[in-house]
Amino acid sequence: MGLIFRLAWRNLWRQPKRTWLTIGAMLFSNVLLIFMMSLQFGMYGLMIENTLKAFTGHMQVQAEGYVDDQKMRQVVPDVRALASTLREELNSENVAARARGFVLASSEERSYGIAVLGVEPAFEPVVSSVPGLVKQGRYLDSYDAAEIVVGAVLARNLKVGLGDEITLLCSGLDGSFAATVVNVVGIFDSGIAELDRSIAEIPLGHFQDVFYMEGAGHEIVINAPDVEQAPALEARVQGLLPAGKDLVVQDWNRLQPGLKQAIQADMSSSFFTYGILVVLVSFSVLNTQLMSVLERTREFGITMALGLKPQRLGWLVMLETCLMGSIGVVLGALLGALLTSYFSSNGLVLPGMEEMAAQFNLPVRMYPRITLLSLLAGPLVVFSFSLLAAIYPAVRLRWLQPVQAMRAA
Amino acid sequence: MTIAVKCIELCKTYRQGDTDIKALDHLSIDVETGGFVCLSSPSGGGKTTLLNAIGGLDKPDSGEVWVSGQRIDQLGKAALADLRLREIGFVFQAYNLIPVLSARENVEFVMQVQGVSTDERRQKSQAILEEVGLKGLEDRRPAQMSGGQQQRVAVARAVVSRPALVLADEPTANLDSKTSDALMDLFSELNERHQTTFIIATHDRRVMAHVPRLIKMLDGRIVDDIAQTPV
Hints:
Strand order of the largest sheet of chain A: 2-3-8-5-7-6
CATH class of chain B: Alpha Beta
Structural class of chain B: alpha/beta
Number of domains of chain B: 1
CATH topology of chain B: Rossmann fold
Strand order of the largest sheet of chain B: 6-7-8-3-9-10
Order of helices and strands of chain A: HHEHEEHEEHEEHEHEHEHHHHEHEHH
Strand content of chain A: 15-25%
Largest interface: A-B, 22 and 25 residues
Number of strands of chain B: 10
Order of helices and strands of chain B: EEEHEEHEHHHEHEHEE
Oligomer: heterodimer
Number of helices of chain A: 15
Number of helices of chain B: 7
Shape of chain B: globular
CATH superfamily of chain B: P-loop containing nucleotide triphosphate hydrolases
């Protein structure tokens, strides 16, 4: 064990209470940062998965430009066949073709403008959570039947129930007038008012008949096992698309830009709070090390008189901080991981979060997600700022004169 | 006979309140290699200031300081630290041991900074601690030792790396007469055996009687330089 290391370690424990107090501040902030960041990552993960699970999926095959300007004529030709090919090539059921149009939906009493999706009833439940949210009746079960599933709010607005008819008026792919009458076979309730008010689903075959689609659709939704694996799958899908048809794969960031922005906005405000915490801890370290250096002025004078250069004394102070910080990082990471693991298994209900949870399509019970980033980022930032805070006390030693220092009390 | 320390026309003035105090007043002195010299003066006579100037701990306002043939009053901090590390051993009045290190570690401190190997350090520190009568107390920390024992550790630390020059400032001030005599005997022995030059600042008459050369100072000047037979 080197001389400077030994001195640094023993110096730390000359004032054990003060050292533990400083380590305690580091420890507290490290545990808090690990837990809060893991909770945030868990929440973001849920937000992403739940939002994408509703409709968007992890990626979609679309005609180029459709994502920016959803025109009826920007189609994926022969959409069912391509979806079937992708299912085979990817060896996955997580692929479903869709068509999308905007219609005037009329019941006997009322009319509303809504988005209607043509879906493959056999595969839509695999890529979307909506089929599982049907609370009355059943989900679509025929590829070309004239039936519809509507959201609970839309059903209430149109004053329709199971078995009632709704007339859909729209313009077809060729610009001609299109209309159909469909029977309400199911009503879903996602709890998200916007979704329940403005979306309805009909079988893809019937959609193609009504809108003169000639076998085309607008999107093929594809889900990866999880969002982390989506980029690799996206690259694979891109390679499977037929050439010359202007088809592209759009990832969920492109399809749901608001989601990432909401996450980034939330992260920014949280990181500001974390920053304040880190600065407070840094001041605690600065105070401790400054006190410690002032207390030992005489001793530093002696060591300088014996031939130790001021910069080595500076390194001594930095090493002391480094040791304190390391204890804070190790204990903080350990306690933070234990605490977070407990809540990762058991979940955490924060009072007053119900409204926010509904808004972001989240369950009320949150599960922190511990990752290498959430485990190490906070403690390493605290550690780095502690070292920064120790620079001033360390640099101060450069101006120390041995004679004046040895006269210090 | 070579010269270990040479001071030429040293001046140093301190300001105390509104008064300027001349700690060194055109002082010149030569100390030969292997010399055993005592500086004596009443308090404030300038002996500690002179020791500090010779040790490179403080700079004179004017004049020259030469140690081992090198002019040191113009050297920078790092070069002075190097000089103190390689050439000079210090014994202070208040022992000035490093409280978190054991007796052995305190003795090894200078050697460790010098980069001496662990084995050599261990062997030399053990030998010197035995020589100063501290065998068995190697692992005690300063707070666990008496004043006399701490001063012995300080002496061991000062001489263990065989410096050319040892500067001792009131080394017996906190010691009883018996321990003082033992310490001076140790200094004499080291001086004779290793030809180490000793300059001791003191106002202790027993110490003064112990050296072959006694330099008396007053108000920053040398008033008497006496060659005598040590008791």
